[in-house]
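ok so I'm stuck.
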Amino acid sequence: MRTIKLDEQSRKNVLENLLKRSPNQYTEYESRVNTILAAVKEEKDAAVFSYTKQFDGYDLNADNIVVTEEEIKAAYDEIDAGLLEVIRKAMKNIREYHEKQRQFSWFDSKPDGTILGQKITALQRVGVYVPGGKAAYPSSVLMNVIPAKVAGVDEIVMTTPPGKDGKIYAGTLVAAKEAGVDVIYKVGGAQAIAALAYGTESIPKVDKIVGPGNIYVALAKKAVYGHVSIDSIAGPSEILVIADETANPRYVAADLLSQAEHDELASAILVTTSEELAKKVSEEVDKFVAQLSRKSILEASLENYGYILIADNMDDVIDIANDIASEHLEIVTKDPFTTMTKIRNAGAIFIGEYSSEPLGDYFAGPNHVLPTNGTAKFFSALSVDDFIKKSSIISYSREALEVIHKDIISFAEAESLTAHANSIKVRFEE
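replied:
not stuck anymore, here's the structure
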């Protein structure tokens, strides 16, 4: 990993380099994505089947597009019993955490006959996209589906790309069944996003699409936003570790690599005030990379987007951390909770040397679907809130309206909206 002394110029260079990873920078793919979206919108199933044959090598049709109960049962037979137990333990933690996020309708009535309130309604149908191939993550199934179930979504459909033999990764199917997915379709890529957004003969249109995917999936979600809601435009994974001289360099190095192994665009950054820690972490990183299985990916991501930044003081550490607004932020300092209070921008914050990032990925309970590429400045983790909508409730008696009706008329006339004013006036005509 490159070690850099933090100053204004290096700070600017780092921030500019990280932004190159944003899906917004890959506009050369947009025309291909738009072609797929247009074809599915027009030709529906026929286009979905054709693209699945082209990209996944599987002869998809109306008879085999849905994962059957027999296929799910076979997945249970195939999956390791120990993994199934872990999935169920993780589900319990995830469900309990998200149940604390639930919101309820409320009404506030006054003696004059005024009733104001807010009605909470779950979305009717949600589509969950799950990557296939090397990126088969049962944990992401749980993180996307369980908040929707807690919110009370009526129907949860899932799409995931099949192998050439039409099979879906067993762990994905088992996680989907355990979490409560209603139906699973063997479709991936931009064509799956198009099918969920527009609807086809086989796949119903949904109200919202959630879930990670490659650049084609990300750009497709961006393009269909407005036809449906989406969770976010997910970029490559990232971690930032704030550490001082009290941190264990071996722990820090291991945590940095836990995200760098995702893909060549992943980012891993240490910000510290300790030159000694920086040196030791760099040495430990090199040792780990030499022995870990995804060595080539680790080397590429560290070469492109791996940094050890040395700051003069902790205030500068906090400032750069808030500027980067990392998806995952670990705080390994002498007083991590005090440091945490100064963090404004982060997707998830891990406090203390035994709260390593994979704890959040798999088991603790908070959602691991998090804002990336600096969007933690204005976006939040996926939550129950993403699967509900809020309707305002307004009810006035004649007596309550009479007291304030001239104020409303005055306001409307000031905006030259005489029909607005008239709808109030007619209720108090002689």
